[in-house]
Amino acid sequence: MPRIEAREKVTGAARYAAEYRLPGMTYAWVVPAAVPRGLVRAVDATAALATPGVLAVLSHDGGGRNAAPRLRPQAPELALLQGPEIAYRGQPVAMVVAETPEGAREAAAAVEVRYQPEPHHVLLSRDEPDSYVPDTVNAGYPGTVETGDVDAALAQSPVVVDVTYTTPPQHAAPMEPHSATAAWEGGTLTVYHSDQAPWRTAVTLAELFGVPTEDVHVIADHVGGGFGSKAMVRPPTVLAALAARAVGRPVRLAVTRQQMFTLVSYRTPTVQRLRLGAGRDGRLRAVWHEALQQSSRLTEYCEQTVTPTRVMYATPSLRTVHRLARLDVPTPSWMRAPGKTPGMFALECAMDELAHALRMDPVELRLRNEPDLEPGSGTPFSSRNLTGCLREGAARFGWADRDPAPGPHRAGRWLRGTGVAAAMYPGYLRPCTATARAEPGGRFTVRVAGVDIGTGARTALTQLAAEALGVPPDGVTVEIGHSAYGPAPAAGGSAGLASWGTAVHRACRALLGRLAAAGGEVPEGGIEERAGTGEDIESRPELSRHSYGAQFAEVAVHAVTGEVRLERMLGVFAAGRIVNPRTARSQLLGGMCMGLSGALHEGLEVDPRDGDFANHDLATYHVASHADFRGAEVVLLEDEDPGLNEIGVKGIGELGIVGAAAAVANAVHHATGVRVRDLPIHPEDLR
Ligand code: MOS
User: Fold this and answer.
1) Is residue 299 exposed (0-12), middle (13-18) or buried (19+ Cβ within 10 Å)?
2) Ligand 1 site: residues with CB under 6 angstroms?
3) Of the candidates 230, 263, 296, which is a domain's last residue?
4) Are 485 and 441 members of one domain?
């Protein structure tokens, strides 16, 4: 089924958050902190207030005139304009509201802020003296998991690989920048918002402003990507609502591309040391994976980077440890496949290094270490077809023809190589409610506070609803993107379709039951049923629930310049039931492209002098384009998993990026014989 809103999108009729124009609308512009740590001593708004059309200059004390309304934040990074403390460069210290965006921008430049700077530390080093091991990390995983005697097993292993990889901070860079258009009517707040989680945004804003959740309406009809950056409330959203309350008129705050780089989070840098011990038969005896990462002074966010190592390969001894250092930086947060993306880069490159040390084929090495139970916990798998993905991929990619010797492999002016890596991502089912409604004329309407961030969610939900109701897809209208439709999880954690779809399925079945009991008659006003998914699937830890995949890449590396070109790429995935193969393929390709981008292009450069990201636009923060991403294909295996939900959906939003960077890096090594352990791989690393 083609995308339902395709025509709206290609004709420009689909409206995004910054395209809503409300009567009497005004515009906000942020004044960012120019120092990474310290205090705001004074905000002088005299010149800014003299700019034509300026309505207010808000700051924590307002210079005695324009103090920002008080908030009740649960998350410290949302305590905006509430005090003088500065925790990162770019943190909002004031905000201008004006009749035009141009006026707001001009006035923001005229706001004079005096600082009391303090010494700062913004650059994560390989050995952070003040780092520590947190008890739990993002998504509730334990900070450390250990089984067996790793030290003894490593000492007794005939083959040991001990390697350290680094990955840089990365920016989500969604095509549509963040924006919020906020309006208060009495105690009711409406926000048109670029959002992955409208219901949760409503809950957060209600807490911040001390109003009931049902008095906050968050509307996200169309969203141009998010990759995690829109999966929780970021500062600009709060500022828009704050400004609207302060001036008593609707306010639009559209974040500029450059402001995006400090205001809407990023992926933490990592330093990862992996020690693998194996017998000469290739069977792992010890796996030790330790990751050092950063958070801000405001919040402890520790990415779950070593968690995939607890799931991937059979080993009698395992030690997986997260370490965290808190620096004077913006708070890192979720970005596509948090933890799994950097963690599987390191693990899957280390497995490639082990294969070379053993003179063993890297596909064969993975097959030999396939576990019967999840290694870190001993739980059975709800389903797991990594071996099927590896075998199918190897056959389709022509892996058997590969020269097993490490490079360089010369073909004229180019060196050529192929690489493989595994992919994995957890399957989640989150609390969600949906309503299904029958109208007298025979039509159905289904509502759930999910959101389509470009994935095809609206289309797949329509297919699932039609199937549950036993009608063709054009007999049902699915409405999403509005917080008022009830509790629903984010389009994040790859849990969207599994959760919304299960709730929709149950609501539709409940409605059919009601209809049957009523003899099939729909009364005048229609009838409606509500149903949901209940608690988080993690409360049932008796199964290990994941999707799997295998990534294959072929690269050409220019022998003189070191330029790396992708020649072809194949991702084979076993990811539960695929509701819509067309949009699923597109989403998995997008993930693979983002993985390629992380291997070769993406990386934020931190300026240690002022704490800024030096590259903060799309000219200097490179992301892979169509021209970079050539010859890529996706194969989806049949994969039945009864352990997650009755619709068999596992989720595919993140699986495609996992392992993709490792496959490319392993191919670069195969082509050149050079092992680059620090992403991104630059031409100068290969010359
Ligand atoms: Mo995704 S980083 O869980 O939105």
Assistant:
1) middle
2) 196, 228, 231, 334-336, 338, 492-493
3) 263
4) yes
